[in-house]
Amino acid sequence: MSVEPEVPIVQVEEVRENPVLYKIISSDNHVFTISEHAVKLSKTLWDLITNLGLTAENALDNPIPVENVNGKNMETIVQFCERHKYDEEEPEYTNYIREFVLPEWDRQLLSIDNEELFQLILATNYLDIQKLMDYCCRVIGDMAKDKTPEELRIIYGIPTDAEDDALERSASDSPGPSG
Amino acid sequence: MSQVTNSSLSVNFIVLNIEMSPIRLFNFPYVVQREIMDSMDLQTVFLLSISSKRMNNLIVSVEKARFNKIKYILYNRFAHEDLTLRFRWNSTTSNESVFVNQVLESIQRHIDGLIGDTKECRLYFLTYGREFMLPKLRNVSGSYVFLLPSIDGKTLDDYCSASPNQDLLQVRPEITSRLKEDSAFFGMKCLEFSDPNSVVVPELLRKFTGRQAFTSTANLESSDVIKFLKKWKSNESFENLETLHVTLGYGSKRFNPAEIKNAIDIKHLDGSVNTAVYSCKRRMYSRTTRYSNN
Predict the structure, then answer these.
(1) What is the 3-state secondary structure (H, E, C) of B28-57?
(2) Mind telling me how many Å the CA of A55 is from chain B's nearest CA?
(3) Phi, psi (5° rounding) for residue A75?
(4) Which chain A positions have a beta carbon within 8 Å of B23's beta carbon?
């Protein structure tokens, strides 16, 4: 009977995983843990970490408060960043056309109602996560496909010219702070 | 207009969205608005621009850099290029189609306000029926006109006068009446048309100021050919001319080549004489040549 040599089993994920973790506190005091590779997708957070001088040793002891993002959105953002932390950097797009296919996993993640999507985009914009911004905007842009201007007005909450005029008139008629 | 959708589907969609709160584009920060617009194709941005004046103004502001990159505006049935704003009229009833010229002209007026009035346009106009009118579009650099069963001289004159000096004009239907004396048709850089009634080719041999013309006709008088060749040889006219290709139809009256040779004093040179050779790129090679953008 032959004895197989003992070969250590090393999972690829373990090798690639960076042990440095950071803590983030949302505006409603939910605490999230995020890996270094994932947090780098957010330019705002990474700049903050760099400026605060957080290191592997003190990262978990110094949670980062993010007062502009609530727990629900932060959860989505952390999921997204962890999912895409090893993605290759995408080349700068040219000609103002973003040719990419929205992956099914991300489409599911972003299958939320419009108000939630709106808040998520504001959070994404604040945290400066370009890839998530691209994906969110693609979801919003896709809503316009094959629609008439009238339908677009409903989808995007665009007031008619008459409504805009009325709003402008009422704004100009109303007394100012001193009136 | 662009992408007419199925009406029953549209109604369902509106009901669905009334139940769901809209995602208000105007409430996003400017930088996000630009990201969203950039994720849309130009056709969608155009449709969005006609949803309201305020939205139109926003798009003009947000998409300025992108609009500057537009190569040309194509009024076309088929197009596959990216930086092209294209419109496809795909109406379902003939009543709608009658007004296609007015719709296209309105679209051009709207585009003037959206991206400026200096963009090059191209027209691919294919339709059937006598009641259709050609749109009077400006800045057209190339046209393919397939207006069956025929087109009269005045309609063609009016179209050409709105956009003279086009790089390429192809007219597929037969032209049924003469063009006016100073028609801009004769000033197009490259022409391709058929003239079975021989109402245009004789005039072309007197007035053409473009570079290349490819046509077929039923009859051609020797005297017309002789006058044309004499003017060309003497540099009196046709200084831009590179290629003129006239195909005579079957059964047409044949002129006598010897008469023409004698009249313009054609000399035969033997092979020992080195003659100057001029070459030019032909836009067409046959009547079946496809629309070329070169």
Answers:
(1) CCHHHHHHHHHCCCHHHHHHHHCCCHHHHH
(2) 32
(3) -60, -45
(4) 114, 117-118, 140, 143, 155-157
Counting one residue from A and one from B, how many pairs have CB atoms under 8 Å apart? 115
Asked if the Cβ–Cβ distance from B52 to A122 is below 8 Å, we say no
**Is the pTM here over 0.90, yes or no?**
no
B91 found inside a domain: no
In chain A, which residues have their Cβ closer than 8 Å to the Cβ of B31?
Answer: 125
In a domain, B171, yes or no: no
Specify the 3-state DSSP secondary structure of B293.
Answer: coil
Residue B166 lies in a domain: no
Q: pLDDT tens across A135-144, in order?
A: 999 999 999 9
Judging contacts by C-beta atoms under 8 Å, the chain B residues touching residue A154 are 14, 17-18, 22
Nearest neighbour of B20 by CB, restricted to A113, A138, A150: A113
pLDDT of B71 over the 70 cut? yes
**pLDDT for A54-98, tens place per residue?**
988 888 889 999 999 999 999 999 999 999 999 987 766 555 556
B41 neighbourhood in chain A, CB within 8 Å: 97
Which domains does chain A possess? 19-90+98-172 (3.30.710.10)
Residue bearing the bigger pLDDT, B13 or B30: B30
Lowest mean pLDDT, pick from A22-31, A98-107, B165-174, B227-236: A98-107
Distance CA B12, CA A44 (A): 42
Tell me whether residue B61 is in a domain: no
- From CA B100, how far away is CA B107, in angstroms rounded? 10
Our count of domains for chain B comes to 1
| Interstrand relation of B72-75 and B120-128 (parallel, antiparallel or unpaired) | parallel
